Amino acid sequence: MSDAPAPQLTHDPERRREIAHLGPIELYTPVLEQSRDFFVRVMGLREVHRDEQSIYLHTWDDYQSWTIRLVQREHAGMGRTYLRAASPQARERLIETIEATGLGLGRVTDVRGLGEVYLFTDPDGHEMGLYWDVEWYQADDEDRPALKNQAAAYPGRGANLRRLDHVNFLTADVPGTSAFLRDVLGARCTEQIVKDDHVTPAAIWYSVGNKSYDLVYTEDWTGTRGRLHHVAFATDTREEILRAADVCLEAGVHIETGPHKHAIQQTFFLYVWEPGGNRIEICNAGARLILAPDWKTISWTKEERAKGQAWGLKTIDTFHTHGTPVLPANL
Amino acid sequence: MSDAPAPQLTHDPERRREIAHLGPIELYTPVLEQSRDFFVRVMGLREVHRDEQSIYLHTWDDYQSWTIRLVQREHAGMGRTYLRAASPQARERLIETIEATGLGLGRVTDVRGLGEVYLFTDPDGHEMGLYWDVEWYQADDEDRPALKNQAAAYPGRGANLRRLDHVNFLTADVPGTSAFLRDVLGARCTEQIVKDDHVTPAAIWYSVGNKSYDLVYTEDWTGTRGRLHHVAFATDTREEILRAADVCLEAGVHIETGPHKHAIQQTFFLYVWEPGGNRIEICNAGARLILAPDWKTISWTKEERAKGQAWGLKTIDTFHTHGTPVLPANL
Amino acid sequence: MSDAPAPQLTHDPERRREIAHLGPIELYTPVLEQSRDFFVRVMGLREVHRDEQSIYLHTWDDYQSWTIRLVQREHAGMGRTYLRAASPQARERLIETIEATGLGLGRVTDVRGLGEVYLFTDPDGHEMGLYWDVEWYQADDEDRPALKNQAAAYPGRGANLRRLDHVNFLTADVPGTSAFLRDVLGARCTEQIVKDDHVTPAAIWYSVGNKSYDLVYTEDWTGTRGRLHHVAFATDTREEILRAADVCLEAGVHIETGPHKHAIQQTFFLYVWEPGGNRIEICNAGARLILAPDWKTISWTKEERAKGQAWGLKTIDTFHTHGTPVLPANL
Amino acid sequence: MSDAPAPQLTHDPERRREIAHLGPIELYTPVLEQSRDFFVRVMGLREVHRDEQSIYLHTWDDYQSWTIRLVQREHAGMGRTYLRAASPQARERLIETIEATGLGLGRVTDVRGLGEVYLFTDPDGHEMGLYWDVEWYQADDEDRPALKNQAAAYPGRGANLRRLDHVNFLTADVPGTSAFLRDVLGARCTEQIVKDDHVTPAAIWYSVGNKSYDLVYTEDWTGTRGRLHHVAFATDTREEILRAADVCLEAGVHIETGPHKHAIQQTFFLYVWEPGGNRIEICNAGARLILAPDWKTISWTKEERAKGQAWGLKTIDTFHTHGTPVLPANL
Prior knowledge:
4 copies of one chain form a homotetramer. In chain A, the strands form 2 sheets. In chain A, strands 9, 10, 11, 12, 13, 14, 15, 16, 17 and 18 form a 10-stranded mixed beta sheet that branches. Chain A has an 8-stranded mixed beta sheet with strand order 2-3-4-1-5-8-7-6. Chain A starts with 18 loop residues before the first strand and ends in a 6-residue tail after the last strand. Chain A has one domain (19-325): Roll (2,3-Dihydroxybiphenyl 1,2-Dioxygenase, domain 1), CATH 3.10.180.10. Chain A has helices spanning 32-42, 88-99, 174-184, 238-251, 302-306, 318-321, and strands spanning 19-29, 46-50, 54-58, 68-72, 77-85, 104-108, 117-121, 127-131, 163-171, 188-194, 201-207, 215-219, 227-234, 254-261, 268-273, 279-283, 298-300, 324-325. Chain A is an alpha+beta fold and 331 residues long. The first copy, chain A, has 6 helices and 18 strands. Chains in contact: A-B, A-C, A-D, B-C, B-D, C-D. The interface between B and D is medium-sized, with 20 and 20 residues.
């Protein structure tokens, strides 16, 4: 085994950032109303629309008309991850690049609150949609904010989740998805875990703007393709995550692990399972920003991870095994 | 004018502490349902009972069956302040002492959740009730706490007020009420504001246990007897008071001043007016405890107060003028 | 095995509270200067005096002249725990009661900053000292506080520990020490862990005032007498304990477990080992006060503890095995 | 006067973001060592270099080799504001655009830790420097961080300022500087204050990335050109700003106003004056991010500002009058 440090995942700072941000997303649940209750009553989201098979929810600091769509399905899992392009032209350039990979699925116009969406999958099979046109959130009398630079009123309810923060997928092929994120989507790898060879990535954290990450892929130890590890929502402070733990305790929500601080990305985290079975992270993103346009990817080795999380907490077993599938919408 | 420091308000540490704590209390409001909505929806209390003219509310960390009773009246103001004796015998000893002052009003047995209550007034006319027997809070299915060392579930709603903290009365006679608190009730003066003679108290902070204060009397500049300055409720941290300010902003509650930190007692405060017109303080009590049994009263002069609050905020005008009457229940 | 709940550890509310508070204390360390560095540089205490074999340290909110004395010894451990009586007369009454038990060791007058100290041990052999007269802390130019109701300036250094909070002893005889605390010292048991018979205490939390506990005794699984589990210091908020964890991480301090929240007493905790080997807890005491004079002891069973700490963290092994001896000063 | 809303300051989302971030900056002070002491001892920065007339300081989360340079001058004020380009090519494109305005001053290579710097002024005369090459911060034994994704160890000292956040200039010509920021530098106006005509900007907040603002210009009521209103540094949370207020109180630092929350940008703020006379803001930036690539500029009217800050605090007089000059380096 070589002692050489992991090679830098270099990127060209001159390359345009074509993706503005992550979201909205779709989550599947076998217990729709219970999952809705978890997100609305315990997490502080607001129900903004429902149709026969799904419920649309909104976090108070999201400028878009909805943040997650809960869909009734036989099994828990994830549906589409939508990505907003940085401009209409950026979207067309990205579509052209994705088309060349053969992973494109075509354009649809039936997604609530979004204009035309270009569908594709990553190499591991997670379905994604790229859009530009979007409906902005219109607060009504019940959630009109006191300050007009805010999408909706601060709910003062439960965990008061602010906005979607990131999605962490499980994948059978970390190197392949890493190449896709870098070469096709133009995202930037801010941190990674490398295997014993100090080169092969086992987990990758990719950023599309100044947030330190937006999309994460972790190796699926079960070898399954296309699964979800967790979806994460942001609060402002660590204190709010401690309060969220108390709120979950009172509500009987399964707390898997935390609150604690990851060494990687220094995220302060709390992992819970929503009633449908999907793992949800509550994290304090935002304070740590990546401002360097030529940020050097941080690589963590197996030895470094053996120390536990930042303050020494050992990672619990289910964290390495529990996942829920990401399934195409038309299944 | 003498340069001599204010004399110590000495107390005898050997004297028994006969009062266990403050509360519950009664508040009057001309808009009962609006005041109820403020306390339940914005402040996080729970309605536990209502009768024809009043509503009983409970804070989640109060071991007693109710914390405040809102009473429909023509004008805002305060009703009775109840004090729990430290033991049944302590209550009888206190009654004897109060009787000797001529301020006693007799015993009643019709107060919800309390056993026999001995009524009296302080020298300025604020009505009080002394009791020992009390009904403990029984959580039901809706607010059963996850941890059995807690009275009710953490509500996760609005300002999440934890418990009643203190009452601040206006009085036309600070020296007289000070003598009553010290000599009759046996409370201990932890801090005071003194006049230009450096001797005469203009405001007094009295404690009955380890909390740094429970009862406060401030000189009423209008010369009126028997008014209320504010009732205060505790949260755990300063951060929660900042959040309470956001919650009040969203709910359209009138924020009078704060959040800021008093130099006196170092209380981190937020003052709002409930819909009925009573001033309510949200404060972080608890972190600062008075453990010394021979604590030396801290005296603040006019010059020291001219510096503003701890971080320099100037006290606003209404803080010196706005008050609501404390009226006998049988008015 | 009976299903009956654990019997209430009743106390008589009329019984006087003869002890005002815990502290100061003595800690032994084989690496005096390293332990001093930990407490001063990382924890934020101040060195106020040193002699040939020991260093006296002060926490900024302690009204007394010192908070802990670090003593150079071959092995880590604890020396005397000092308790301040509630009044001079209370001290004499307590001495008489202790003398009757045969655990008295006599009076000494050579303790820095304290007047006459009456020495005794609890039934398990931990040495204690009871005093009334005490020297108050005199801030000098370097740590004069901006607000005169504070002992010393807020240091703005490391974990900024505010004051001593409690001592947790290991004991070979929980029932015996429990009877001593209750019957001899007059403290009140606020919570306990009971064995499978639901009666025999395995750990006890005793309070002398409104703090929910001051002295804790936990069964020593090794059967050794007279050991220390940990000494705890208070900060104001949970956020400060998270920051303390970061400060300890940067300083290379061994973090044993936490930050997390105990179900018992709801203490938010961080356990670290100071360089000498003693376990130190950083906790947020204060927010939760016991105001009921007739508080009913909360009993936790083995089954309840098997759920882990409040948010599910499993207790780590060293927490049950690591302890340091409490040794008489004249050893 | 028209009732028409302020026109949107539109920008083209397709236009490249050519500036990566703000900083480092230069501050002038007539009392160099006192200003250094303020930043190091009270604010938690680290001295990393000094030469005959200046001292270089570093905030712990800055990836660059220094964050501010304090320069000894007869009067307080600001020197250069450096801006890092998003790529080497972006820098050349920007230089070309600036040259065309006639505001260019030429290229220099003598700035510590930076490669070639292109100097220019904004239309109001504030001197700026555009660079790409930069020396990364190298932690030494004294401030090596425990986690390798962090520039330097968390200091655990004073206010623990994390990084430079923004600069707020006074200007005699808001519309002119606004046009320069938008048309020449390609920044995006996220919020503004408009005059009674609801069109003319009186203050503007411009962003270069996902932070909600980086450069602010406020109308100088004195009509003077080229002055500084304040320089702002970020902490993570509001709680840390409250603690910073306590730290400043203990250190005798002049607190001008706060802590409180601006309605504009929702910044939680504390304004203090460093010993040299420059106004310094401590703010919690980061939680609120602008993720929408087509964010619509928020316009605040005079009436809206008359309500005071977010929770009602009235703006104090000195906030409108106190400023310090921005002077060319070669004066």
